[in-house]
Design a protein that fits this description.
The complex is a heterodimer of chains A (about 450) and B (about 190).
Chain A: E1 4-5, E2 18-19, H1 28-32, H2 49-52, E3 61-63, H3 68-74, E4 109-113, E5 116-123, E6 141-143, E7 156-161, E8 167-170, H4 171-174, E9 180-187, H5 205-209, E10 212-221, H6 222-229, E11 237-242, E12 249-253, H7 254-259, E13 262-267, E14 270-271, E15 281-283, E16 296-302, H8 309-312, E17 317-318, E18 324-326, E19 334-339, E20 344-345, E21 350-359, E22 365-371, E23 379-380, E24 382-383, E25 393-401, E26 406-414, H9 423-430, E27 443-446, E28 452-455
Parallel strand pairs in A: 1-4, 7-16
Antiparallel strand pairs in A: 2-3, 3-20, 4-5, 5-6, 7-8, 9-10, 10-13, 11-12, 11-16, 13-14, 13-15, 17-18, 19-21, 21-25, 22-23, 22-26, 24-25, 26-27, 27-28
Chain B: H1 4-25, E1 34-35, H2 38-44, E2 59-61, H3 62-72, H4 74-77, H5 105-108, H6 112-122, H7 133-146, E3 155-157, E4 172-174, H8 177-180
Antiparallel strand pairs in B: 2-3
Helix pairs in contact in B: 3-7, 6-7
Classes of the chains: A mainly beta (about 450), B mainly alpha (about 190).
């Protein structure tokens, strides 16, 4: 299923038909007899309530275009109490499984250049997902000239420049090296950049903030190959080049390459998907997506950056002074409520679970606070294990919505003590024309009617 | 004499000492890299640096570039680099500090070598790699001309492209902390 938008900004919600996803019964009667006091304004409840009580929560509904028929057909028990699916054999096995047809709305949202359809992005539907691992088919994409078709049998990696021994490696060679796995996010430097606009755009959360995804990546630590090639003392940079239709290239400090860089061959257990760099991707945990070079073919050790287009004219951040920030690399701490959020709808006052994602390119998330009164008061959310460095961290907190206008927001803190800034603080520091590295607190406004929209608050 | 258990513990400690020493050195791979010949490196090495290192031999004029631009680039970038579906390439009138800054080649790009490099790598997007070195010099010259950096009779080549002074040459502040310990080797900041 392919859906495309040629708009240059995030598309608007595409339909108003509702489908309930993962909804449990509302069971407010059970709660009315016991007193549950909020821990912060707007009805935020103690995060440990999940553990203490067997409360039953609702989730917001996703606004989608399909599956009305599911409600009509699926839940009519027969006289014997059996579902229709129990009265016939099911479908046969499959060589490669696909999502349920009832989940056809859970797709990447494509926004490509009208004249060059391999140049653009596709957004990860964060508002449709749970947990911290992004399914491979939903990992966000940013391509500069399409997804190349590469036969791994014909692919080589060249390491040269300021090394003692210039070397080439085949993919089969690399598969014999010691590997390591790590779960980490990859985020485009331009993610969330609509936030720099004067007015908030209206789109589903993933179509504004979904140029970020999180996977388990497996491959060869780059330091092993650099040791084998023998780095000369005057090598301070490493230029990585892709085998795509723009031979995308970018400069990376050798320090990072020797620290935690991985030459990734696998993503979530299977070989990396073509759109994520098959057969070989340079993975730089915590660093902006453009440095995580896909379709990697060449690594050149040098004593200076190459000053390619994507580290000078792009992926640099213009500030009010007229000077720009260059080589920003690390993605600073950020968080986002993914339910309830824009793209979803509430169904009446009562108990809800607020949940979302937090991540930092500097290390572990240590705290995610949530506010339901526009930031006047905050409460600590529950961090779902595992909490890993440079990875998505899932947070959750219960909330009793009183049915009136509310603004909910989340604020992440990482292990360096860095606290995600409010938008006005970020804009005051950087202006509105930086384009990249927007990580301000995201506010969702919930109207009395149940609609959720993106606001600056 | 040692009991078998003591022997085992002794051997275990020796073993772990060896393993520890290995880890402290470096993780060894199977060393399967094959030596890359000078020819292979030369064929693959397409890097072009701000100091001109890597620029291939060739030259081109503004006039040649104008013809090429109209034929191969204007469909996406618009006539004279403005008003197309793709990146705006010229016409930066607002500068970088106004309410609507113009980040064009003339106002924002740091090095003329980057322009040659990017065109040579990926342009035009429908036929990357199709432009010759001379054609790429010509297009680079034309783009620098319409950004009011070069006169109409300019010729660009591997001899002089890296000497072009771009207006935003000193426009960057390096952020990554490890880079701050030494002065920026390119700009000297």
């Amino acid at each position: 299923m392919t859906k495309k938008s040629t708009e240059t900004t995030a598309p608007k919600n595409r339909s108003t038909t509702n489908k309930t996803v993962g909804v449990n019964d509302i069971n407010n009667n059970d709660l009315s007899s016991t007193e549950i006091l909020p821990v912060a304004g707007g009805g935020i409840l103690d995060r440990r309530l999940f553990l203490k009580r067997s409360l039953i929560f609702t989730t917001a509904t996703l606004i989608t275009e399909s599956s009305v028929e599911a409600a009509a057909e699926g839940i009519s028990p027969t006289n014997s109490g059996q579902s229709p699916s129990m009265l016939k054999p099911g479908n046969t096995f499959s060589n490669y499984g696909l999502p349920s047809p009832y989940e056809s709305q859970t797709i990447r949202w494509v926004s490509a250049n009208a004249m060059a359809d391999g140049n653009g992005v596709s957004w990860c539907p964060l508002h449709e997902l749970e947990g911290i691992i992004t399914p491979n088919g939903l990992h966000y994409e940013r391509h500069h000239n399409g997804v190349p078709d590469i036969d791994p049998a014909n692919h080589q990696l060249l390491i040269h420049g300021l090394v003692e021994r210039p070397l080439t490696f085949s993919i089969d060679d690399l598969k014999r090296y010691p590997m390591e796995s790590r779960i980490c996010f990859v985020e485009c430097g331009g993610n969330s950049n609509a936030g720099w606009n004067k007015r908030p755009v209206q789109a589903a959360a993933g179509h504004i903030h979904g140029l970020v995804s999180c996977s388990e990546w497996t491959g060869v630590p780059l330091s092993i190959l650099l040791h084998e090639a023998g780095i000369r003392p005057n090598a301070s940079w490493l230029i990585a080049e892709a085998a795509d239709g723009v031979a995308m290239n970018i400069s990376i400090p050798v320090e990072k390459a020797m620290d935690d860089a991985i030459l990734a061959l696998y993503q979530n257990g299977e070989r990396i998907r073509p759109e994520n760099g098959y057969p070989l991707r340079l993975l730089l945990p915590g660093w902006e997506g453009v440095t995580n070079v896909k379709w990697l073919r060449r690594l050149q050790l040098t004593d200076q950056p190459v000053m390619s287009r994507n580290e000078t004219a792009k992926y640099t951040e213009l500030m009010p002074s007229g000077k720009s920030r260059q080589f920003t690399f690390e993605m600073e701490a950020k968080s986002l409520i993914t339910s309830p959020c824009a793209g979803q709808e509430m169904h009446g006052a009562g108990y809800y679970q607020i949940t979302g994602l937090a991540w930092s390119g500097k290390g572990k998330i240590t705290k995610v606070e949530v506010s339901a009164d526009g930031g006047k008061t905050w409460a600590d959310s529950e961090l779902q294990e595992p909490v890993l460095s440079k990875s998505f961290t899932r947070f959750r907190i219960p909330w009793k919505w009183d049915g009136s206008l509310a603004v909910i927001k989340s604020r992440a803190t990482d292990e360096t003590g860095y606290v995600q800034p409010e938008r006005d603080v970020l804009v005051k520091e950087r202006g509105r024309h930086g384009y990249f590295h927007y990580n301000a607190i995201v506010s969702w406004e919930i109207a009395a009617e149940g609609y959720v929209s993106y606001v600056y608050a | 004499m040692f009991t078998p258990k003591q022997c085992f513990i002794f051997m275990l400690s020796m073993f772990s000492a060896v393993v520890h020493a290995e880890l402290e050195q470096e993780i060894q791979g199977p060393k399967l890299g094959k030596p890359a010949s000078e020819e292979v490196i030369k064929a693959w090495d397409s890097s072009i640096f701000p100091d001109g290192k890597g620029l291939p031999v060739g030259k081109g004029t503004v006039a040649e570039g104008k013809v090429l631009f109209k034929a191969q680039c204007a469909i996406c970038h618009g006539p004279a680099g403005v008003g197309g579906t793709a990146e705006e390439l010229s016409g930066g009138e607002q500068g970088l500090t106004g309410e609507y800054p113009d980040k064009t080649i003339g106002t924002y790009w740091l090095y003329a070598t980057t322009l040659f490099d990017f065109i040579k790598r990926g342009m035009p997007l429908m036929a990357p790699g199709s432009l010759s070195n001379d054609q790429t010099y010509a297009l680079t010259a034309y783009l620098l001309h319409i950004n009011e950096i070069l006169p109409a009779d300019a010729i660009m080549s591997n001899e002089n492209l890296f000497q072009v002074e771009m207006p935003n040459r000193e426009g960057m502040i390096w952020i990554y902390p490890a880079l701050k310990e030494e002065p920026n080797p390119v700009s000297g900041n």
